[in-house]
């Protein structure tokens, strides 16, 4: 049962008006539903097998798809011999560029507000090959096994042309200024190179990170059908509305003709967007006149779905003897294909980490003939902080200053690039409480000095930042429905849930505002028919939803007061003068003047009441420098004989505003840290430079952390609300991974005296 919100619903002081709207009065509330550990509402459906994932839907008469992939990186299809495949048992269709329906190009990210493609290449339209692994043939058959078998019988020959398949070739061909979201990845404050050259203490190193591929537990899949002139898609998506709109554009349909649902997603991390497979599946379904399930194999995910691009980063820091920075330079190279849109923007974290008299941040891009890369959890920050935070550790070591202390000495007073004030930055507090809890004072001062049998033991730390974003376009519809002497609330949002707890957090926020128990609140999401557009990306969905729920709730209260009319004890009260409590509204200045929702609706002879409202414009980010922050501590054991690294302890100390649901937040932070451990020690896409093919396209050869690789991970947070964010909360989806690889690398240095500047830190590099 929800306690009343009354005591906390204090009217705001006039000077607390902020750009982006008045903050939620519940921001300061500490002991309601918000801040309580609530289990995921979808958890029971998942563990009991009743949650339907994209590849579990079925349609009558459905057939199964299998893809044949290009084996060359660049050129043309010379011939396709599909006679054997067409004669194979169960085969319904062999689709190639010869018989595929004519399609519009995929709308590429950045080309319009709703465009989400990682590339705008034509899909099965012209026989031109752009990457090794590009789908060239789609086979439909009555069973998945028949489709897979028939696909193996298709013989494709190619005319190959020279391709760029190594970083060295790409560099030799010349590099260009990188862009991200339409802006150049270039920041300059003063003359950093000159200041660096004149600085009394200097570190200048190059760090390398490899390509990474996405490995969500649920491989990408879609089950789809043409019903009349409508396309129905059950997809695995973190951008539900946008994908529906993009599919409509590709197939030349009106947006209402595409209905896309995605209630459950088995992990996304940036990858659950629109790729070739959904388009090919829908095209084949149209051609065959049959519903289609297209489920990528694990190998298929590597061929079709892009990941993180290579980086080669220079970090140069010039410092005074007290450790304060004269110059911070973070520059280097990333890659993308000619048909791509996103290099790895590795300077994003560095934009808000430290104060320095001068700064130079710059990403250049070399072009390689590969699959288009895309977002992967903290794109930019995850690998950028490996370089920056390793370099800070190197500087601390050469200056003989404790690395935590060195970071605190360089804490900026305002945004180092934009000059705007910080909305809420408590990283120093996070450092202090984290260091205390971890036992940082016990860190071996001399690298390589602590042994436990054949194990070197060491500790390292690192910092992370991730920007606060809030995308416009979020709407919420709240419907109150009378059921006898009680009421149910339904909240509809065009959001995506990848398993991180969005629906649960939304229910918490709505229940708290409405003064209803959680059990009386239903959440609908993951359906393109719901108005508005949100996406699970950029760690911003919860803020976007929250702003919309706040706006819709305020509108709902206004409507309720109108319905209540003159016969209500609430008569004459404005929306600002009431609070929600115990299934109704009450006057703030006189809590005895109250009426339940049921009573208001009944007297007005209404069965329900529904309002839809968009969130306020996200103006707060224009006025404030807003970020999530982390202070990370790691202890490693490195085997002196084998070079094996075991992470033995890890602590994340976070400053991300108010934490809405501690239970799901803890999982988000831990999951991010685990992904960071994989990045530090294991993950690496092996691109065969002879032919641009991913050589380790399987989970047997692309290594991820398993349970035995993961130690107890301790997580704490400041829980200080940001008065300038709609619910006081910053994003927590991507900050978890940020900085982790550097914390591990720095601990390895402390344990062994060996500085590894190349990820992943595999044992061969330590011998
Ligand atoms: Mo993320 S990389 O914004 O899913």
UniProtKB/TrEMBL annotation:
A Pfam family reported for this protein in Swiss-Prot or TrEMBL: Ald_Xan_dh_C
SMART domains linked to this entry: Ald_Xan_dh_C (SM01008)
The EC number(s) this enzyme carries: 1.17.1.4
Enzyme class: oxidoreductase
TM regions (residue ranges): none
Name listed for the protein in its UniProt record: Xanthine dehydrogenase YagR molybdenum-binding subunit
Keywords in alphabetical order: Molybdenum, Oxidoreductase
InterPro entries in the record: Ald_Oxase/Xan_DH_a/b, Ald_Oxase/Xan_DH_a/b_sf, Ald_Oxase/xanthine_DH-like, AldOxase/xan_DH_MoCoBD1, AldOxase/xan_DH_MoCoBD2, AldOxase/xan_DH_Mopterin-bd_sf
UniProt source species: Novosphingobium fluoreni
Boundaries of every Aldehyde oxidase/xanthine dehydrogenase a/b hammerhead domain copy: 48-162
GO molecular function, one term: xanthine dehydrogenase activity
């Amino acid at each position: 049962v929800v306690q009343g919100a009354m005591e906390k619903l204090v009217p705001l002081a006039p000077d607390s008006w902020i750009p982006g709207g008045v903050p939620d009065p519940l921001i300061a509330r500490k002991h309601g539903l918000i801040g309580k550990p609530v289990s995921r509402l979808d958890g029971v459906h998942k563990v009991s097998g009743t949650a339907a994932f994209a590849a579990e839907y079925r349609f009558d008469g459905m057939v199964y798809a299998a893809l044949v992939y290009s084996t060359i990186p660049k050129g043309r299809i010379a011939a396709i011999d599909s006679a054997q495949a067409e004669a194979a048992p169960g085969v319904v269709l062999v689709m190639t560029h010869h018989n595929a329906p004519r399609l519009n190009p995929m709308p590429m990210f950045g080309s319009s507000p709703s465009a989400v493609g990682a590339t705008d290449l034509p899909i099965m339209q012209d026989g031109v090959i752009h990457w090794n692994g590009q789908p060239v043939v789609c086979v439909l058959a009555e069973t998945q096994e028949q489709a897979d078998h028939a696909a193996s019988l298709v013989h494709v020959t190619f005319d190959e042309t020279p391709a760029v398949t190594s970083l060295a070739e790409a560099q030799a061909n010349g590099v260009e200024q990188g862009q991200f979201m339409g802006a150049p990845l270039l920041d300059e404050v003063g003359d950093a190179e000159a200041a660096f050259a004149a600085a009394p203490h200097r570190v200048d190193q190059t760090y390398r990170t490899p390509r990474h591929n996405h490995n969500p537990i649920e491989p990408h899949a879609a089950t789809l059908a043409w019903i009349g002139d409508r396309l129905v898609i059950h997809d695995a998506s973190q951008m539900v509305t946008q994908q529906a709109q993009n599919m409509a554009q590709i197939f030349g349909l009106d947006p209402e003709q595409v209905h896309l649902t995605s209630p459950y997603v088995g992990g996304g991390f940036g990858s659950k967007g629109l790729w070739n497979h959904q388009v090919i599946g829908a095209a084949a379904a149209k051609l065959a006149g049959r519903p289609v399930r297209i489920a990528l194999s694990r190998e298929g995910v590597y061929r079709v779905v892009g990941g993180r691009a290579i980086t080669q980063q220079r970090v140069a820091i010039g410092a005074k003897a007290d450790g304060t920075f004269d110059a911070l330079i973070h520059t280097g190279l990333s890659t993308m294909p000619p048909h791509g849109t996103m290099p790895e923007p590795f300077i994003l974290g560095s934009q808000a980490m430290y104060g320095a008299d001068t700064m130079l941040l710059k990403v250049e891009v070399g072009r390689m003939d590969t699959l288009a890369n895309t977002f992967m959890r903290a794109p930019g920050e995850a690998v950028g902080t490996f370089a920056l935070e390793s370099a800070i550790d190197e500087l601390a070591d050469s200056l003989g200053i404790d690395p935590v202390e060195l970071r605190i000495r360089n804490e900026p007073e305002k945004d180092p690039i934009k000059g705007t004030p910080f909305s809420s930055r408590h990283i120093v507090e996070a450092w202090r409480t984290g260091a205390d809890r971890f036992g940082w004072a016990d860190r071996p001062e001399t690298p390589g000095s602590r042994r436990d049998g054949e194990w070197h033991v060491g500790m390292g730390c690192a910092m992370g930042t991730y920007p606060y974003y809030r995308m416009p376009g979020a709407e919420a519809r709240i419907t109150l429905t009378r059921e006898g002497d009680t009421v149910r609330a339904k909240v509809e949002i065009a959001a995506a849930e990848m398993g991180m707890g969005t629906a649960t957090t939304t229910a918490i926020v709505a229940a708290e505002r409405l003064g209803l128990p959680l059990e009386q609140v239903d959440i609908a999401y993951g359906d393109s028919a719901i108005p508005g557009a949100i996406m699970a990306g950029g760690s911003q969905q919860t803020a976007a939803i929250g702003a919309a729920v706040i706006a819709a709730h305020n509108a709902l209260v206004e409507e309720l007061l109108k319905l209540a009319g003159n016969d209500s004890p609430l008569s004459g009260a404005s929306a600002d003068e009431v609070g929600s409590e115990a299934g109704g509204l009450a006057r703030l200045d006189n809590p005895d003047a109250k009426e339940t929702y049921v009573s208001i609706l009944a007297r007005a002879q209404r069965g329900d009441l529904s309002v839809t409202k968009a969130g306020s414009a996200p103006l707060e980010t224009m006025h404030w420098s807003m970020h999530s922050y982390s202070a990370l501590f790691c202890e490693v054991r490195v085997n002196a004989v084998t070079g094996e690294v075991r992470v033995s302890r890890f602590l994340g100390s976070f400053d991300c505003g108010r934490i809405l649901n501690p239970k799901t937040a803890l999982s988000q932070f831990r999951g991010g840290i685990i992904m960071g451990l994989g990045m530090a020690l294991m993950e690496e896409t092996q691109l065969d430079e002879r032919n641009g093919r991913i050589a380790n396209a399987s989970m047997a050869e692309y290594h991820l952390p398993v349970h035995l690789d993961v130690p107890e991970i301790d997580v704490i947070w400041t829980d200080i609300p940001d008065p300038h964010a709609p619910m006081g909360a910053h994003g927590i989806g991507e900050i978890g991974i940020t900085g982790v690889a550097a914390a591990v690398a720095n601990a390895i240095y402390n344990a062994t005296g060996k500085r590894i500047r190349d990820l992943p830190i595999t044992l061969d590099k330590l011998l």
